[in-house]
Amino acid sequence: MRLFGKYLLILFKSQMQYRTSFWLLTFGQFFIPFSVFAGLYMLFDRFGQIQGWEFFEVALVFGVIHMAFAVSECLARGFDMFSTLIVNGDFDRLLVRPRSTVLQVLGSKFEFTRFGRLLQSLIVLIWALSKVEADWTLMKGVTLLFMIASGVMIFTGIFIVIATMCFWTVQGLEIGNILTDGGREMAQYPLNIYHKWITRFFTYVIPFGCVNYLPLQYILGRTEGSGVPYMLAPLAGCLFIVPCLLLWNFGVRRYRSTGS
Amino acid sequence: MITVSGISKSFKVARRSSGFGSAFKSLFRREYTEVAALSDVTFSIGPGEIVGYIGPNGAGKSTTIKVMSGILVPDGGTCSIMGYTPWLDRVQYVRNIGVVFGQRSQLWWDVPVIDSFELLRDIYDVTEKEYRSNLELLTDTLDLGDLLRTPVRQLSLGQRMRCEIAASLLHGPGILFLDEPTIGLDAVSKIAVRKFISAINKEKGVTVILTTHDMSDIEALAQRILLIGKGKLLYDGDLAAMRAKYGAAEGGETGGGSAIEEALVNMYKEYEIS
Amino acid sequence: MRACYSVFRLKLATGFQYRSAALAGIATQFFWGFIIIMVYQAFYSQPLADPPISLTQIVTYIWLQQAFLAFIALWFRDNELFQLITTGNIAYELCRPSGLYGLWYAKLLAQRLSSAVLRCFPILAVALLLPSPYRLTLPPDPATALLFLLVLILGLFILVAVSMLIYISTFITMSAAGSLLMFGVAGEFLAGMIVPVPLMPSWLQTIVYALPFRLAADFPFRVYSGHIPTDEALATIPIQLLWLAALVWIGRFAMGKALRRVVIQGG
Fold first, then answer.
1. Hey, are the CB atoms on B109 and A14 less than 8 Å from each other?
2. Which of A15, A90, A99 lies closest to B123 in CB terms?
3. Minimum-distance CB partner of B115 among A13, A98, A258
4. Domain containing A157: what range?
5. What's residue C130's pLDDT?
6. In terms of CA atoms, which chain C residue is nearest residue A188?
7. Angle at CA C56, nearest 5°, toward C27 and A53?
């Protein structure tokens, strides 16, 4: 943990060497999701609701998902940019150091400019929280935190899986955007507005449903019976990262036996 | 110290053929050719030696270094370095070695060198006391003084290489792998690097394995050379013996190169690997 | 014009070499299109008094967006040009015997054309064959189709002129990513990429109509689906031409200024 802090410090110093660019990018990162959110607002302005969901309910989901995405993009940027590490051969360098590869790849990049996105999602989230109709309890607050944490784990897991693909090929990795950017874009609405097959895929394979649908029902008081399963659903989402890490280790082993 | 026996390693190389039909086919099934990068390489190195590891491009030098530093797992053979098998106990093992890849950098590009050093100290868990004394020694012998406060991108290649070597020795490793450490350096920097390598070898007893294409590096540093060609170890012995055996005959034709390079060319010819 | 053609051929050839990248891009755009259409489907599932644009027209709008992304996305970048500017190597370009504006314009145009050629046909072909709510419908009559092509090409010219301004602004900010991001986000929104223009609130529509961005995306797409009637489309073509002339003039003027500064500073 202390080492990770050191990595952050050195990366922050590096990025601060290019101050103008840093601020412009942070600013831009604030506005990208802002324009998407403005679009969302306009659509609700026009249509009133989407399949029974009110604007502030969707805004809550939007805030949670974008915050999770921003955090994991900051954090797991090293995995996002992993193909350059492989292409340059710098991954060999990581292998001659006495630390786990996951930690070193995480520490190889950290995108501070994503704080712009983080800030934007925080504002949306606070606004939505203050307006949404729900009886807040401690449990519901905890559930909300679980939702964000679970989102971070899922996005990070996806970044790791895509990075693992680099051990086999560095071509056509764009397809991974379907899962990262596409997942984010899709999960900013409650999952049940989509087709059954999409909903199923993004609940059982990539568990976004555990982040934005089940716990949301609980927070909005739409569940019957015990809320505990709904509350714990996000924790199930966190488990997604386990197979991702296993896959990563498998990829590293393959890399070391083929050296390609 | 280091025993390598019977190491083999082959790579699959996708065969590419021209023409649309075969390109289309290759989308589904690739044909591979096996290329033996190393076959049955055996040698051992004692503590405190400096060994020059030479051979033409693509002979298998880098592959050997990668196997010995725990990056690659070989197809067969055994290797024991300081009691470890490199590819099995990677994390424990690499604490004991230092690696310099001449064409790559391990320093963070945009920050002063000292920041990179401090991060490496934490990566390798070096105690403060050991770090201080190592840093002091390295700063003195490599003449790093002012360089430590400079961002890496502002250093010249020679300055950077000195810092790279220092970075690989901060944790006081017993073995140092140098993969083309003098590539692209000017004469002054080259000599500084060589002096340092022999100093660290004498004073701290560090075992050095060095690959290079510059025979004057070998001449200045190594008592012993290993020659590899097409994945096979062809020659293992001391430098003087090699020169005596393959050196150009006295007064014979010289192509203008130094005597040692002549000897090498003759050797390549004999083994038909050039 | 010759320069444009040779860049076009070169880029097309490289594009074909990176087949898997193109395939991945197409797959991504498909997924994207589906997600957006499903969201609109959900919005449209409730009874709505007098929608400003029908769901079928929205679906068409979105598929055209995905197919012609290369014609309308401002964040497309040519790193080579940015590097020329920020490293000061621009001095070399000044030695060339042709006008810099024309050369760069041709290069950017060729890049967008080649990348659109690679991607639009597969997307259009599949989107035309999809089952009903997702299908891309054909334009109402051949004349509309021709009109669509005309305004699409004019729109492309306008867009390249706008993106030239981004490159020129780099002379001042010296940060490629920053300029690109700001222009890209604002431009895309105003072109109707995030919310189709007819669904925007009326105050915003007024602003959008006053700016050139919609002429490259929103306008041709709605001509295609017949949402903009022929006479209105014909009336807008002079506006497109006017904007094009104005943007090129501004670009040339600003570039002249910027270059003079470079020359004076000695690179």
1. yes
2. A99
3. A13
4. 2-10+19-258
5. 85
6. C39
7. 80
Range B94-116 burial, b when 16+ CB lie within 10 A, else e: bbbbbbbbbeebbbbebbbbbbb
| pLDDT band with cut points at 50, 70 and 90 for residue C94 | low
Q: Which other chains touch chain B, taking contact as 3+ CB pairs less than 8 Å apart? A: A
* pLDDT 10s digits, A13-22: 887 777 777 8
A3: tokens are 């080492």
Number of domains in chain A: 1
Q: Domains along chain B?
A: 2-100+163-271 (3.40.50.300)
Sequence-distant (≥ 6) Cβ neighbours of residue A53 within 8 angstroms: A189, A190, A193
Chain A residue numbers with beta carbons less than 8 Å from the beta carbon of C201 are: 42, 45-46
In chain C, the largest separation of any two C-alpha atoms, in whole Å, equals 66
pLDDT in tens, C178-211: 777 777 888 889 988 889 999 999 899 999 999 9
Is residue C109 scored above 90 in pLDDT? no
Q: What mean pLDDT value characterizes chain C?
A: 82
For chain C, the residues whose C-beta falls within 8 A of a C-beta of chain A are 18, 20-21, 23-25, 27-28, 31-32, 35, 38-39, 42-46, 48, 173-175, 177-179, 181-182, 185-186, 188-189, 194-195, 199-201, 204
How far is Cα B82 from Cα B85, in angstroms, rounded to an integer?
9
| Of the candidate ranges B57-71, C57-71, C84-98, the one whose mean pLDDT is the lowest | C84-98
Residue of A nearest to C45 (CA): A51
Q: Is residue C266 scored above 50 in pLDDT?
A: no
Residue in the block written with tokens 């025979």: B215
